[in-house]
From TrEMBL:
GO MF annotation terms: electron transfer activity; heme binding; iron ion binding
Residues involved in heme c binding: 33, 37, 82
Residues of the Cytochrome c domain: 19-105
A Pfam cross-reference name: Cytochrom_C
Top-rank taxon: Bacteria
Source species taxonomy: Bacteria, Pseudomonadati, Pseudomonadota, Betaproteobacteria, Rhodocyclales
Signal sequence segment: 1-21
UniProt name for this protein: C-type cytochrome
């Protein structure tokens, strides 16, 4: 009986993690991205639409933006810094999904 409960809990955890990765908007919300960014207007940081336009056609955009999200920084969109976002805040798979979603905005 205990093994069945453990297996059920493990499956529920795995399915919720994959559901989060499948929903980049939810992952962005959970990671706190939406506290400073919106889809179509500047808030604290640039809109996702503006980010997508700036990086349109750049083949390395996902890697470049993922690195910027991880390291944080300032100067690309003004002087307000974006804090670093470590893997504990948003995992690599979710980060890649979110950045890809942003670039499609």
């Amino acid at each position: 009986m205990k093994i069945a409960l453990i297996c059920a809990a493990l499956l529920a955890t795995l399915s919720s993690a994959s559901a989060l990765a499948a929903d980049p908007a939810a992952a962005a919300q959970k990671a706190g991205c939406m506290a400073c960014h919106t889809m179509d207007k500047k808030l604290v940081g640039p809109s996702f639409k503006d980010i997508a336009a700036k990086y349109k056609g750049q083949g390395d955009a996902v890697a470049k933006l993922s690195d910027k999200v991880r390291k944080g920084g300032a100067g690309n969109w003004g002087q307000i810094p974006m804090p670093p976002n470590p893997a504990e805040k948003i995992g690599d798979a979710d980060l890649k999904e979110v950045v890809g979603w942003i670039l499609k905005s």
